[in-house]
Design a protein that fits this description.
593 residues; alpha/beta; FAD/NAD(P)-binding domain; 4 domains; 5-stranded parallel beta sheet; 22 helices; 18% strand; globular; DPD_II
């Protein structure tokens, strides 16, 4: 293999910080976790706010793509509770407004329209307002937040937390046009905005047109509409017997909301196996903890209606079979159909984009699934002054992905309005600083603690089920937050090797607790991975290969299993190894000069 030069390639160490690399917004996770451990909550909050915009919201509701990537999960069962630590920073942050960008009173003459008040649009506003843009936000609801307000129940996300973080942005001089449903993009374009951003989400819930559906009428609800009606107080109670169809997070929110609105017998029915449900594991656990049974391998067949009133549903029974390519088929088992009583049914089987308000003669092309044809880097549509982001861009995802879209779309809008190439993307801000404070001392806590993941406390179930606005998860207190933060392996503190200083004593090999360092003859990557002291089988993680040493060997470190504990650097007699903190921050439009 050719020698790797990680100090010259910003993306090399970025890839090694697995949690940050997996985050769509590339939040500097280990840095803010260290700040939490140091009780610097405001600093930790602001690092989050710079990247993911909604730390208090995401600390409760994020889909956590960072946690499966966490290196801690490779040495024990559970990763660091990254998401819930974000909430620790938010809950203890103190006053932060004075730390936020100042918005100039003198505008730059450019006007931007944002359609939809969700996380993508709010991120665009947050990034462009400090640049002097005049921002106009249109939303059909009476408050901002979009799907965060209409689709996430208050028992998971208190309204006070949502209002606080949404208002941090709206208070930047954003012109809000609430209670205004945009029925025509042409009308918006006629207002001569310099650019338009569409962040309307995926607002169309899927229906299920089975026998009896039309007769059941308003006793059947569409999941996302049901949640929105509850959020705005239009729906305050449900029947005693409820069926929720679907296995995703929306279904989990619907069934748990139903329990709080009077549902005594709430069943979730899923056509697929339990192991293939799309809901996050923690959402499933919380639903089961509230005595909601989940029935799997039962496809719906019919709504049973008698004398104009819904009585329940009939379900078949299937088993899953897989071909040699892993494709699944649901095969009827031959068992009798199952009838489940219900006063109401909630359909939560997915949602789609819907753009009936965008005229098709405006130069905006649409492709598969009626999604706009976009440049995936710039989020620019085929009409140059119209940009998309969030679920409206590529279909349903999550809040943190919408934030990432908003950051990138804001850069594109800025470039477009300033007459620059929208493909001219600013490089990330990076830094690499030694953590050495002495021969055996570092400016971070390098020891690897043995604590297992700490459980987040929950409100008493009897209390939680009485009121849909009672928050269920109570969050870590400060002492527990500190202990959970100490589980972080500081993956952004990199092992940097200087071959010119190495005397090939192999002391680092002897002391490494995970056998991730090998001195051996070079070879091609496939061969080299098999000849290390511990075979490097995860090809998604790179090998750190040095230049050739005097003995004709090379140093090879498997980044996959390195704990960043610093023992190699402590043991090295010539300081050939050093622990250097790597800072990687994606440039935002608000930082472009």
């Amino acid at each position: 293999m050719e020698p790797t030069h990680p100090t010259q390639d910003p993306e090399y160490f970025h890839r090694v910080v697995d949690c940050q690399y997996a985050c769509p917004a590339h939040t500097p996770v280990p840095e803010y976790i260290r700040l939490i451990a140091a009780e610097r909550y405001t600093d930790a909050y602001m690092i989050n706010w710079e990247s993911n915009v909604f730390p208090g919201i995401l600390g409760r509701t994020c889909d956590r793509p960072c946690e499966p990537a966490c290196r801690r999960g490779r040495v024990e069962e559970e990763p660091v509770a990254i998401c819930r630590l974000k909430r620790v920073a938010a809950d203890n942050k103190g006053e932060v407004r004075h730390r936020m960008p100042q918005v100039p009173t003198q505008k730059n003459g450019k006007r931007i329209a944002l359609i939809g008040g969700g996380p993508a649009s709010l991120t665009v506003a947050r990034d462009l307002a400090p640049q002097g843009y005049e921002i106009h936000l249109y939303d059909e609801w009476n408050k901002g937040g979009g799907m965060m307000r209409t689709q996430i129940p208050a028992f998971r996300l208190p309204e006070s937390v949502l209002d606080e973080e949404v208002n941090y942005i709206l208070d930047m001089g954003i012109h809000t046009h609430f209670n205004q449903f945009v029925s025509s993009l042409k009308e918006i374009l006629d207002k001569e905005y310099d650019a338009v951003f569409v962040g309307t989400g995926a607002p169309k819930g899927r229906d299920l047109m089975l026998p009896g559906r039309e007769e059941a009428g308003n006793q059947v609800h569409i999941g996302i509409q049901f949640l929105a009606n509850v959020a705005f107080g239009h729906l305050t109670q449900v029947g005693k017997k409820i069926i929720v169809l679907g296995g995703g997070n929306t279904a989990m929110d619907c069934c748990r909301t139903s329990r709080r609105l009077g549902g005594e017998q709430v069943h979730v029915v899923v056509r697929s196996p339990f192991e293939e449900m799309k809901a996050s594991p923690w959402e499933i656990r919380d639903a089961l903890a509230e005595d909601i049974p989940i029935l799997n391998n039962m496809p719906p067949k019919e709504f049973v209606v008698e004398n104009g009133k819904l009585k329940g549903m009939i379900f078949g029974k299937v088993r899953a079979e897989y071909d040699e390519n892993g494709r699944r088929k649901l095969i009827p088992t031959g068992e009798p159909d199952v009838f489940i009583e219900a006063d109401e049914v909630i359909i939560a089987i997915g949602q789609d984009n819907a753009f009936p308000w965008i005229e098709r003669d405006l130069g905006i092309e649409f492709g598969k699934w009626d999604l706009p044809v976009l440049n995936k880097i710039t989020f620019q549509s085929t009409r140059p002054n119209v940009f998309f982001g969030g679920d409206a861009a590529f279909g349903p995802e999550n809040v943190i992905t919408a934030v990432a879209h908003g950051h990138q779309a804001a850069i594109s809008i800025h470039n477009f309005c300033q007459g620059k190439d929208v493909l001219d993307r600013p490089a990330p801000m990076t830094n690499l600083v030694s953590q050495k404070m002495g021969i055996h001392e570092w400016s971070y806590d390098s020891p690897v603690v043995v604590d297992e993941r700490y459980a987040v406390p929950h409100e008493n179930k009897a209390i939680a089920l009485q009121d849909r606005k009672v928050e269920v998860e109570l969050g870590f207190d400060e002492p527990t937050g500190f202990k959970e933060a100490q589980r972080c392996l500081n993956c952004d503190v990199q092992t940097v090797f200087t071959p010119q200083s190495c005397i090939e004593c192999d002391a680092c090999v002897d002391i490494c607790p995970t056998t991730c360092i090998t001195f051996t003859e070079n070879g091609d990557e496939a061969d080299l991975r098999t000849r290390l002291n511990a075979p490097a089988e995860n090809t998604h993680q790179p090998l750190y290969v040095s230049e050739e040493l005097p003995t004709k060997r090379v140093m090879v470190k498997d980044e996959d299993v390195c704990l960043h504990c610093g023992l190699c650097a402590e043991r090295c007699p010539t300081a050939a190894w050093d622990m250097q903190k790597y800072w990687y921050n994606v440039t935002k439009a608000s930082k472009i000069l």
